[in-house]
Amino acid sequence: MYAHTSAGVRLQSVVKVSAAIAALLWRLEATLPSAQAQTANDDAADQAWEAGAVNHAQDMREFPDADHGAQPTPSIIRQFETDPDATGLVATFQPNGVTPTTSNPFFQNLGTNGRTCFTCHQPQTGWTVSAQSVQARFNSSLGSDPIFRLVDGATCPTDDVSSLAAKQKAYSLLLSKGLIRIGLPMPASAQFRIVSVNDPYGCNTNPVTGLTSPSTGIVSVYRRPLPSTNLGFLSTIMFDGREPDLFSQANDATLGHAQADEPLTPKQQQQIVDFETGLFTAQIFDNGANDLTAAGAIGGPIELAQELPDFFIGINDPLGHNPTGAPFTNKIFDLYDAWSSLTGTDQVTQNREAVARGEALFNNTQITIRGVAGLNDVLGVNKIAGFCGTCHDTPNVGDHSVKAPLDIGIADAGKNSPPALDISGLPVFSVQCVAGPLANTKFTVTDFGRALISGNCADIGKVKGPILRGLAARAPYFHNGSAATLLDVINFYDQRFSIGFTDQEKHDLVAFLQTL
Question: What pLDDT is recorded for position 101?
Answer without folding.
Answer: 98
